[in-house]
Every structure is written in C-alpha cells, then in structure tokens.
Specification:
With 253 residues, this protein is mostly beta strands. The chain has one domain (7-252). Helices cover 0% and strands 57% of the residues. It has no helices and 17 strands. It has strands at residues 7-11, 21-22, 25-44, 53-62, 65-72, 85-92, 96-99, 103-105, 114-118, 138-158, 165-174, 179-186, 193-195, 201-205, 210-220, 227-234, 239-252. The strands form three sheets. Strands 3, 4, 7, 8, 10, 11 and 15 form a seven-stranded antiparallel sheet that branches. Strands 2-1-17-16-5-6 form a six-stranded antiparallel sheet, with no helix packed on it. Strands 9, 12, 13 and 14 form a four-stranded antiparallel sheet that branches. A hairpin with a 4-residue loop joins strand 16 (227-234) and strand 17.
C-alpha cells in the first residue's frame, strides 16, 4: 500500500469547511530602523568651477535586527502562556555597512563653521566640537532613521517523529524610497546649527537598495500544531515592526 503524501502548511482555521492551506506565506511589512552614519566631507574644486564643492563619502551601518517567532497553543497575541514559547534568529547582523553613493554638493563654504548632518527632525545633530571647516577631511557622524520594507516568505516544516515545528524564511530588506539627510553648518563648540540651502541634501540610502536575507530557521517544541506569529526587534528589544500572524502549522494529507 502506498503511503499518502503529506506536507506542512499554514492554515487560518483548525479544520472544517473552508479550510485554506498555504505551504508558504508571503509577508511584506514596514520596518523603522535607527541606523548610524559615519563618513567624511572634503572641499574639492570640481573641473573649472570657481568655488569648491563639498564631497561626501561614507557608509550607513544597519542596526542589529532579529526575528522572533512565537509558537502558541491558541490564536492570539501577547506574552506566551505556560507551555508556549518564543524562538529568535538574527535577520541583520549588527553594524552591517551600506556605502552611500559618492556625492558633491554645490554649497557655499562658511568661514569658521563646519558641516554637520541632521538626518531626522527628532534626532539631534552631532556636535563637531573643535573641527575646522577648512580641514582637509571633516568627519561626519549622525543617526539616521530608515524606513524600509521587509519582504520574506515563511515556510513551516513539522517533523514526523516529534512535535518540533521549524519555520524557515528568506527574503530581503528593501528601500523603496531614498533616505536623505540635511547638511547644515555650525560653529565648532556651539549648540546651534544654521540651515543651509534647501537642496543641500545627502542621499544616505538610494531608492531600490536591497539587503538579502539568507535562509533562517526557527524551531519550536512541545506545542502540537501551533499557531505561529512573527515580529521583528532591534538590539534593545524594541519593536521595529508590528507582530504578524502566519497561521496554524498542520500536516495536510
């Protein structure tokens, strides 16, 4: 007698009429990431231009990001109950650099002042204390708020010889829009920055940039046919995106 084939799938109900099984769940969700920019600015004369341009180079360092998968006995949210569990895996290792596109800004040098970056209204610029605006290379540092999209496909696999369920996923983090920072000038040691021209923007991350996520696997034990959800956290345990229900993992024959 031939053994009937079976596979593990996510379902949105325990069974009965209208049961829909999905061997793969495609998830797209927005993420908000607080990254770090480190680079340098330098005044250079471009071709036959009379005044120098400010050339900026550097990289945006993505923060550490993890996926936390919850295996529950019943559908719902909140902290796991006794017998339920959470397991996690790293999505982005900490300090992953994304080099910025080389850029030259047509801005007027300000005597006695140095350029600083303001990457977001609620993120303070970094004081360039003691930096000379006419130095050969001017270090730039700032925190950058990145709005991105996580695009991933999740697949469950329930082992026949145990109650272990493995949730595997792969995908990418995608930037659909460019992320920019404002260039400003400040007197070294001062707590005030002067606004520069409206078009003095530096592209931190170009639209269309994507960071691949290699295959990751997360396992859960002791919960038969669990309801599974996933959420994404930063290094300090803060939510980078809301929790999403993937469905209940069952074997379908």
């Amino acid at each position: 007698m031939n053994r009937s084939e079976s596979f593990t799938a996510f379902v949105d109900r325990a069974g009965g009429m209208g049961l829909v099984a999905h061997s793969t769940v495609h998830l797209t969700t927005p993420l908000s990431l607080l990254a770090r920019f480190e680079g340098a600015a330098q005044w250079r004369r471009m071709h036959s231009e009379h005044r120098p341009a400010l050339c900026v180079t550097g990289a945006v360092h993505l923060p550490w990001l993890q996926a936390e998968v919850t295996f529950r006995r019943h559908a719902g949210a909140g902290e796991p109950r006794p017998g339920e569990r959470r397991s996690s895996t790293v999505v982005v290792p900490g300090d992953l650099p994304l080099p910025i596109p080389p850029q030259s800004l047509d801005v007027e040098p300000v005597t006695g002042q140095a350029p600083v970056l303001r990457a977001a209204p609620h993120v303070p610029w970094v004081d360039r204390r003691g930096v000379d605006a006419e130095s050969d290379s001017i270090p730039l540092r700032a925190q950058v708020v990145l709005d991105a999209t996580l695009d991933a496909r999740f697949t469950p696999k329930q082992r026949t010889w145990s109650r272990e369920v493995v949730v595997g996923f792969t995908g990418e983090i995608r930037f659909d829009q460019s992320v920019r920072a404002s260039l400003m000038f400040a007197t070294p040691g001062s707590s005030q920055a002067l606004a520069c021209e409206p078009d003095a923007k530096i592209i931190m991350v170009a639209a269309g940039t994507h960071v691949p996520i290699p295959y990751r696997g997360v396992s859960g034990l002791f919960v038969p046919n669990p309801w599974i959800s996933v959420r994404f956290l930063d290094a300090k345990g803060r939510l980078a995106g809301r929790e999403h229900d993937l469905g209940r993992s069952v074997r379908v024959t």
